[in-house]
Amino acid sequence: INILTKFHKDWMKTINILTKFHQDWMQTVTSTVYTNKLLTDGGTDKRRHAQRTPDITRSHKLTVSLHDR
Fold first, then answer.
1. How many Å apart are CA 17 and CA 1, to the nearest integer?
2. DSSP of the chain
3. Rounded-to-integer distance, Cα 14 and Cα 30, Å
4. Where are the domains of the chain?
5. Contact yes or no for 59/31 (Cβ under 8 A)
6. Contact at 8 Å (CB) between 27 and 66?
7. pTM
8. Spatial distance between the Cα atoms of 69 and 23, rounded to a whole number of angstroms
């Protein structure tokens, strides 16, 4: 029974590491997709670009805060 318990604990550690990796990856991908969407959405109209600039700045702050975890 001790061997099974040790195996289960080791297995749980591996699962936790994989889960953490997946969560970090999802945050990075989501942030990248969101940023790209902000940068490529719309035309070249300067007025629209000026309206998007604060969103790009907020997106950058979101990206930085997600990577600082």
1. 25
2. -HHHHHHHHHHHHHHHHHHHHHHHHHHHHHHHHHHHHHHHSS-S-HHHHHHHHHHHHHHHHHHHHHHT-
3. 24
4. 2-67
5. yes
6. yes
7. 0.32
8. 11
Tens of pLDDT along 22-55?
777 777 777 877 777 777 764 444 444 445 555 5
Taking the CA atoms of residue 40, residue 38, residue 44 and residue 46 in that order, the dihedral angle to the nearest 10 degrees is -170
Exposed/middle/buried for residue 22 (C-beta within 10 Å: 0-12, 13-18, 19+): exposed
CA nearest neighbour of 29 among 63, 57, 56: 63
Token pair for 5: 């318990």
Compute CA distances 46 → 3, 11, 21, 24, 69, whole Å.
66, 55, 39, 35, 35
